[in-house]
Amino acid sequence: MKTIDIRKMSVEELNKKLKDLKEELFNLRFQNTINQLENPHKIADVKKDIARVKTILNEKNA
Known about the structure:
Blueprint: H1 3-7, H2 11-33, H3 41-61
């Protein structure tokens, strides 16, 4: 997910996206634990997306 796309979202959309990303991260970690995850780098990508969304949320709230 690109930062430009995230900046175009409203605060409500960002909160929903953050919730979805956290759920996805949980599922990826679960799959990784039971050795069903094909691409372990996906976890790092989702963590970075979460950080991007949180950063932009903080900017919009300030």
